[in-house]
Amino acid sequence: EILYQISRTLISNFHLDGILKEILREASRVTGFSRGLFLLYKGKEIRVASTERKKTASEADWAPVAASVFKEEKEILERLRKGEVILISSPEEAKFEERRVLRRLNAKAFFAIPLLYQGRFCGVFYLDQPQTSRHFTKGDIRLVLGLADMAAVAIQNADLFETLRRTNRGLLRTKWALETANSQLKSLDQMKTNLLSNVSHELKTPMVAVKGYAGLILKGKAGPVTPLQKEYLEISLRNIQRQLALIDDLLNFSKLETGGDFFLMERIDLIETLNESLHLIRPRAEEKKIGLEVHAAPGPHWVRADRVKIGQVFNNLLSNAVKFTPERGKVTVAFKKGKNGSLNVSVSDTGIGIHPKKREKIFERFYQVESSESRRYGGIGLGLAITQDIVKRHGGQIKVAGRWGRGARFTFSLPMESLSEASLPGETKGGERMERTGSMD
User: Fold this and answer.
1) Rounded to 5 degrees, what angle do the CA atoms 305, 310, 314 make?
2) Residue 154, CA distances (Å) to 11, 14, 49 in order
C-alpha cells in the first residue's frame, strides 16, 4: 500500500522535494529510524535533499555532519557506488569503518542504500537511529529498497523535467529572437525594395532623356552627322538601351515584391507575342551569328495571359539564351500541348549550360551562374527571378534542364483557351476584353 501510494505521487508530481519527504516519512514510520536524508550526487557536487524537520538544535546540525561523513569516508562511499546496501543493526556487528561512521554520527544503527538509475549512481538514501537499535525484518528491508528505487526514479524524472524546462525556455528565447530578427529582416527587405524602386526611377528619367537626344542627333536633327559619328551614336544608343533594360528589371522586381504590379489578363496569340520578342532579340543574335528557330504547329496558339508580362518572360529567356550561347550557336523555341489544357513552351540553347548544383539557385534574386571577377556576361541576376514570379502568377511553373557545357532548356506552361472561348481575335467572352488581377502572392 505504501509503495502504491508513493507511485501515484511519483506519476502525478514532478516536485522532487515533496516526493522525497514522503518517502522519508514512510521509511521512518516503518523502520523506526528517526533520522533520514538523501544525498544527491551530480558530478562532484553533493546536495542534501529533503531532510526531516529536526526537533532539537543538535538534531538540526546532524544533516550537514552526515553529508560531510559520506564525503570523507571513502571506503563507505566506494561500497555504495558499487551498488552495495549497508545495514548496521548494532555497533557490535559493524566493521571498523562502519563503527567510525556510527561514532561520528552518534548513532546506534544505520541503513544506507545507493540510488541507482539505469546502472548510474545518483545518490544515497540514508537512515539512522541515535537511540537503541532494533531488529529489521525482511519485509522492512524490501520496503526500504523499494522506496530507494522510487527515489532514484523521482530524481531522474526531476532532472529530465528540469532539462525540459530549460530547453523550453531556451526555445522560447530563440523563438522570440528569430521573430525579432525576422521582423527586422522584413523591414530591411521593404526598405531595400523601396530603395530599388526610387533609385531606378531616378536613374531612368535622365537615361530616357539621353536616349531621346542621342536619337535626335542620329537622325540629323542637330545638324549633319558623319559616318564615324553615326557609328559612335549607334553604339551609345545600344548601351543606353541595355542600361534601360537593367533599370526596367529593377523596377519590375520592386513592383512584384510589393505586389503593386497588376496583370491584365486577356486572350492572346502566343506566336504574336513571341515574334515581338524575337524582333527585339534578333540584332544581338545576328551579331554573334546565332540562329533563331521556332518549332510550333501552324495557326494561332491562344492562351489567357498578360501580353506585356509574357513578352517580358520571352525577352528574359531569349536574352539569356543569346547571352550564354557562343558564336554560331542556336536558340530554339518550341510549343507543345500539355495535359489539362495547357501549352508548354521551351526555350533551349547550345550555350554553356548550367551546373547541376546551381540549378536550384538560378531563380534566386541577384544570383548569377557566372559570377567570376571578369563578369563577362554582365547583368544583375534578376531576369530569371522575375520570370519565375510572372509564370507563377499565371498559374504555371518554370523548370530548367540541360547539362554543364551542353546548353540549357527552360520550360514553362500557360493555360490554353479553346476556339469556342477564343471566338474571333477582336472579341471576348461576355463583351469584356480584359480582366484585372492584383498580386496572387
Assistant:
1) 150
2) 9, 8, 12
Helix axes 62-72, 74-81, angle to 10 degrees: 80
Residues in the chain: 441
pLDDT of residue 431: 34
For residues 325 and 347, what is the distance between their CA atoms, to the nearest angstrom?
12
Q: Which residue has the cell 537626344?
A: 213
Is residue 100 within 8 Å of residue 64, measured between CB atoms? no
Residue 421's pLDDT is what? 45
Interval 281-294: pLDDT, tens: 898 899 899 999 99
Residue 429: pLDDT over 50: no
Nearest by Cα to 28 from 47, 55, 10:
55
pLDDT band per the 50, 70, 90 thresholds, residue 325: very high
